[in-house]
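seq:
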Amino acid sequence: MYGGAMFANVYRPMGVLLTLIGLLVATGVAAQGGPVTIEADKVRMDQQSGVGFYEGNVRIRGERFQMRADRLEVRAPVGGKRELIITGSPARFETHATDERGATRGEAERIYYDADAEVARLTGNARFWQQQNEFQSERIEYRVASDEVIAGSPSGDAGRVRMIVQPQENQP
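struct:
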């Protein structure tokens, strides 16, 4: 016989996991209805606080995206701010092109994603590609809803920004 407490403890971590998948789907990173595979050397989830930690060789794959990192932290407290913190040497993500949006990819020592504001902040040797164009800076912000890239620090003291813009192909 199984007690109710045992049953609850077995399924409690699923809430944080489902929150991570929900964040990825809600922000258009994951394909709706497609499977999401998450791998890590170590996973720790706390349903009470709404926080999940994935550590060591973290890999997340979906039909239209992939992420690689040393560590991923998912924060999704009930009624609170929903955010992802991805760190690595470097942490990387890639989204595939859709009918609405071109392909993007990025890498940095730290990637912070505010799911409510739909803003990604890449810091520490940051690089961001929007289709074939590349941005390099110590800090890059990508605003998903407006498809806007802002590179450099607000105070201007984090070094220069480097952009490589590819010529557009002529459409026949």
